[in-house]
Amino acid sequence: MKQTKLIGVTLLLCSVLDFVSQDEMLTPLGRLDKYISSENIFNRQMVARSLLDTLRAISEDERECVSVLERIDRLADDSEPTVRAELMEQIPHIAIFCQENRPSIPFAFSKYLLPIVVRYLSDQNNLVRKTSQAALLVLLEQELMERGDVESLVCPVLVDLTAPDSSDDVKTEAMAIICKVAPMVGRDVTERLFLPRFCEMCCDCRMFHVRKVCAANFGDMCGVVGGEAAEELLVGSAPGDAGQAVTKDLLIQIKLCAGLMLMLCSQVRQAAFQSLGQFISTFAGPCSNTEEGGGEQTAEVLSADEPCCADADAQKCLPEETQPSSRPPVQEIPEQELFNSFHYWRTPVPRIAPELELELELELELEDRRPSAPALDRKQLQELIENLEPHIDDPDVKAQVDVLTAALRATGLDSGLEDAFLEPRAARSNPFSSQQPSQHHSIPSCTALTTLSHDAVLQDVVPQALLEQYLSMTDPSRAQTVDMEIARHCAFSLPGVALTLGRQNWHCLRDTYETLASDMQWKVRRTLAFSIHELALILGDQLTAAHLVPIFNSFLKDLDEVRIGVLKHLYDFLKLLHQDTRRKYLYQLQEFLVTDNSRNWRFRSELAEQLVLLLELYSAQDVHDYLRPLALCLCTDRVSSVRWTSYRLVSEIIRKLSSCSSLLVSFLGELVEKFCHSQKWSGRQAFAFVCQLSIEEECLSLDQFSEHLLPPLLQLASDPVPNVRVLLAKTLRQTLLERGVSTTLHTLVALQTDVDKDVKYFASVHPGSTRLNEDAMSTTSSTY
Fold first, then answer.
1. What residues have CB less than 8 Å from 426, skipping those under 6 apart?
2. 559, 603 in Cβ contact below 8 A?
3. Sequence-ordered list of residues with C-beta below 8 angstroms from that of 411, at least 6 positions apart, any chain
4. d(C-alpha 390, C-alpha 477), whole Å
5. Residue 642, class by beta-carbon neighbours within 10 Å (0-12 exposed, 13-18 middle, 19+ buried)?
């Protein structure tokens, strides 16, 4: 029996070896042909996975490459979904290969691969569809598809998948992929092919999942096409007279409120509220950038009559007015930063010349006088009302039914009854505006039609209904009925909304901001803390001092999770304050040394980095009196990363004090006493670090260094700890000797005969690529 089994195993092994040897005899194309028609599903999956390797093996032969691509098309017809999904996972990799070898196999992607991707987008199997969608996004991100192919082949398929006869799952998937593809294909394609269907899906009361996707991506879609195109389609069929502002603005509010914010399904309302602030920001005008937002008070140059120290060298301590700042003033924001993702969620609107603005105002005034035309089908309004009426017990739904009912009546009004429905613009003029009220009429806010809990806050930048819905996000009932995180979403988007409204409309947001700043959830307060400097930039120094400084002060005393937000942007906020207000914070900086958790070393590291920036905001005397003690304390931190950042801070303090000899001498003497003469070897090593950094960064002159720091530095040559002598050797050999400080030669000769081989090496050889940062990395691990 055992012999029989042994013979069987031997025969099986021989057959396997024969099988392997047969495969080795085949060409790559031959192996592909052998397994592509195998009845074993696993073999066909392996064929899909090996396609890229096969192409690489025959890349020199154009005809064989084409043969492989033809077999890919054959494999794409496989009846097994797992094989098709495996093939689709390989398509992006194969496409990249084809792109790299384009001269030898031109049109490979568009002829052989793209049709498979397009076909699989509507595959019956969910796994295959999902894989093809992921592959499509990769191909677009890598710019492997021609724009014409995307427009003519891909986009129509995606739109067809959202047709009424498609299943709900397919519609939801297709709409999600459309929203992701839209930013990649740009405004023109999105506006022509995607936007009509997107707006249709937004208002389809029967498909909750599709509406949820639309609501979540509403702001992004409007950001792609711009506000005007979105507005025209969101009001349904464009009116016969597209310039009629009254009807369009009214219906924008109705559509946005009814179609998104107060849908019956809580998930849709949740997604809509999450993107509401982002959508409001797309109403930003052409002048809504940070220059309009203010921030006039930058890092001011100290006045010449303010002494920085009380000795005869006082005048030398004042910074020169021509001294360049380490950070550019607010007015000199780089062009690429003017339109970053914080400022806009859409393509920036170009500036309009003053004379063109006047022409546009006259043109709009004429358009407002043109006869009105219905912009929304009455039947659509009636359907919305009928769908909402069964849920009339919900206060939000009841309010919306009132809005829709009023809108239904409004569609039947002719121009003769218009005055009875409209209120004069003067009645809602901005109390902060210096302009005279215009004589033409405008629409009332939705507060004239509904009973919302918030008082009407007047402005004319965004539809009032949108703003009121946004302000309602701080209502405690919203957290219970919509989303427990709704307040945090409100806080996250508030700077963008403030930028859109402009500082003249800050009164609209002030109460909401103060409510959020005192929210019981620390995550809400943390969100505000991380963005308070951006809001200060928008509001300018006067509003910041009046309304933001008290909140900033409360954040300073909050939990560490909140304090880290203001700490990370401490310089950005303080530089916007008036000099007198800014100086008051000198007394509070030491509070950052105390944390809820002493192991939170990153908090202290961030403090050291911010102190480096703060040096330019204060006089040399203030730096010596208030920032110097903090720096010395951080230099003795038990975490090496904090200490290393602090050494840089100390070197920058030396630079700041270098113009005032009395303060400089006092500080350098303190460094020698505390560090060079320290009982701990890490302190003596820190002294060598600071000396090296001060010279390499030119924080003080060689004469000043030679007089005050070099003698105690050379004394470290006899230090008992090798790590200290190693750093000393590096500093003398690589930093001082290069700059012609010949007094170090005697000490270097002595270090070249040191008992430690590393000390001898760095005292004798000058590694060409070794700089301060490499030195630090080679020693900080031993100083933790």
1. 437, 438
2. no
3. 374, 376, 378, 381
4. 22
5. buried
- pLDDT interval class at 468 (50, 70, 90): confident
Question: What is the three-class DSSP state of 212?
Answer: helix
Least confident of 1-10, 128-137, 302-311: 302-311
Cβ-Cβ contacts under 8 Å for 299 (sequence gap 6 or more)? 325, 327, 329, 575, 616, 617
CA 330, CA 540: separation in Å to the nearest integer? Answer: 11
Contact by Cβ (8 Å): 429, 437: yes
| 3-class DSSP state of 205 | coil
* Helix, strand, or coil (residue 423): strand
Amino acid at 18: D
The answer to whether residues 105 and 72 touch, using CB atoms and an 8 Å cutoff, is no
Report which of 37, 38, 122 is spatially closest to residue 88, judged by C-alpha positions.
122
Q: How far apart are CA 705 and CA 428, in angstroms?
A: 68
Residue 426's alpha-carbon distances to 288, 418, 685, in angstroms, are 24, 17, 72
Signed CA dihedral, 37, 43, 45, 48: sign only? negative
Q: Is 342 left (phi over 0), alpha (psi -120 to 50) or beta?
A: alpha
3-state helix, strand, coil in the chain (%, to 5): 70, 0, 30
pTM of the model: 0.55
- Could you give the CA distance from residue 46 to residue 311 in angstroms, rounded to a whole number? 83
Report the alpha-carbon distance of residue 71 to residue 597 in Å, rounded. Answer: 63
Q: What is the DSSP letter of 676?
A: I
Exposure b/e, 252-278, CB count within 10 A at least 16 = b: bbbbbbbbbbbbbeebbbbbbbbbbbb
State the amino acid at position 249 in one-letter form. Answer: D
Statement: residue 621 has pLDDT above 90 = yes
Determine the pLDDT at residue 678: 92
Q: Which residues does 259 contact at the CB level (< 8 Å), separation at least 6?
A: 202, 203, 234
Distances (CA, A) of 568 to 6, 35, 294, 443, 602: 73, 59, 21, 44, 11
Structure tokens belonging to residue 611: 């102190």
Which pLDDT score is estimated for 234? 54
Helices first, then strands: H and E counts in the chain: 48, 2
318 and 622 Cβ atoms separated by less than 8 Å: no
What 3-state DSSP class applies to 693?
A: helix
Backbone angles phi, psi at 152, to 5 degrees: -90, -25
Reduce the DSSP state of residue 421 to 3 states and report it: helix
Residue 442 forms beta bridges with which residues? 423
